[in-house]
Structures are given as structure tokens and as C-alpha cells.
Amino acid sequence: MSVVLYHHPYSRAANVIWMLEEVGVDYELAWVDLLAGQQKTPELLALNPMGKLPILVDGDAVVTESAAIGMYLADRYAPGRLAPALDDPRRGTYLRWILFAPSVIEPGSSAHASGWAYKPGSAGWGTYEAMLSTIDAAVGAGPWVLGEPFSMADVIFGGTLRYMVQFKMLEPSPTVAAYVDRLNARPAAQASDARNAAERQAHGLGG
Prior knowledge:
With 207 residues, the chain is of the alpha+beta class.
């Protein structure tokens, strides 16, 4: 039975295709028409009460939240290759950068772009400047966040940076720009870009 990804190319499900391509597991896409509100139908709400994508179904397992999906896929289908073993000292660093993306980069960038008034000491994401310097520190030694081995952390953490740089939501430092270039060169990343482009074309979407 194939893994099923409920998908729309203009959602976070787009990056999950990259995860699936890196893992190398067979998968199929289930189209969700976001403009028609299909994500709010009873069928989809039964899978994810948030009424959001991505949703991954693997047999009896249902996983939502893109970071959780990436961790699940790496642990289930690529342990030791895309996910450090539970007793590997690098496991802590791996988890750190995976969770940094949704808990710091996304809200921190939104706060900066929207001009939110908040106390950095009270917000989990701190200051925008600290976020940027921390990102640089994460990828500075390279080539990947764990050093030489590429991992699912690069797909999640790096995928967030890749998206934000592509759509000019973040001005990359030279260090981050070089990291994004390395991510863009991944065959699985290129395969996911092509699959998302094919889905856009098949459903008459621009971009």
C-alpha cells in the first residue's frame, strides 16, 4: 500500500513531496482543492481537525504537521540514513534544527514582516536578529546541519529557508545562500519541484 499525501502545491504539502523523494518510498497524491474549501470537508476534518494540509496517511497511521511528517518518514523508512539513531549523539542536534523551523523561523519571520509589537524575552522566537545569526551558525560549518551527513533536518529546516529565499521573504546571508544552493542541487529536491510543477499544470494553476 502506497503512502498517501493529501496535497496542494501551494501548501506546506509541497515540501512533503521532497521528504518522500528523499526517503524513496512509493507514494500517491490525493488532490485537495483549497479554493473550493475541500480541506474543511468532514472527510478531511476527520483526518486533521485543523482543516489544513499536509496530511499523510500510511496504512493506519495519520500524520499532520510537516515537521512531524518528516520525522515520521525518516524514522520509519530511512533510519540511520536520514534520521540519526536514538542513541546517536547527533540526534539532539537533528531534533533541534527540525523544530527550529516551525517554532522560531516561521513565527519570527511573520512577526518581523508584520511589525508585531512583542517582548522578545516573552516570545519563543526571540529577536529577528538573533534568529538570523542562529541560522548562520547552524549552516556555517556545512555542508549540512549535522555536518557531512544530509538528514531530514535539512529538508525541514532547509526547506523552510529554501522557500523563504525563493519568495524573497528572507534576505539570505552568503552562508545561507550557499546552503540553499546546495539544497537546490539535491536530485530529490529537483524531483519534488518537477512533481509540484506538474500538479500545478494538471490543475490549471499558475506559477
